[in-house]
Amino acid sequence: MEGVDLRVEEAAANLGAPPHVVAWRITLPMLRSGIVAACMFSFIQSFENLELSLLLIGPGKITLPVAMLNYLEFKIDPTLAAVGTLQILLIGVLMLVTDRYVKLSRIL
Predict the structure, then answer these.
(1) How deeply is 103 buried, as exposed, middle or buried, from its count of CB atoms within 10 A (0-12, 13-18, 19+)?
(2) Does residue 33 contact residue 103 with C-beta atoms inside 8 Å?
(3) Which of 17, 21, 63, 85 could covalently link to 12 via disulfide, CB atoms 3.0 to 4.6 Å apart?
C-alpha cells in the first residue's frame, strides 16, 4: 500500500463516488498485484512448512504434505516424485498466469 497514490481515491470521492465504489473500483485494482503475489507466495510456502501443517490439521482432515509424509513412511516408489513434479508444474503455471494478469515483470 506504500506505492498507492491516495490522490486517486480522493479524486474519485470528490467526484461523487460512494466509499464502497471507491474501495471496489479504485483501491482493489491498485492493490491487485500485491494481493495476488501474497496469495501465490503463501500457497508456495504452505507446501514447504510441514511442521506447521501437522499442528494445524484437525481430526479427519489431512493436507497434501502430511499425506506425502505418511505415504513415504510405508512405501518407497516414484509416486512421490510424480506428485512433486505436479506441484512444481502447478506452481509454474500459477506464476505464468499471475504474470499474465498482474504483470509482475513490470514491477521488477
Answers:
(1) exposed
(2) yes
(3) 17
Locate 61 and state its grid cell: 482432515
- ∠ Cα 37 40 45 (to 5°): 125
Per-residue pLDDT of the chain (108 residues; tens, 9 = 90+): 777 788 888 899 999 999 999 988 888 888 887 887 787 777 777 666 666 777 777 788 887 777 887 888 888 888 888 888 888 898 888 878 877 777 655 555
Q: Where in the chain are the domains?
A: 32-107
Residue for cell digits 485494482?
A: 29
Task: Provide the CA 67 distance to its chain's centre, in angstroms.
Answer: 21
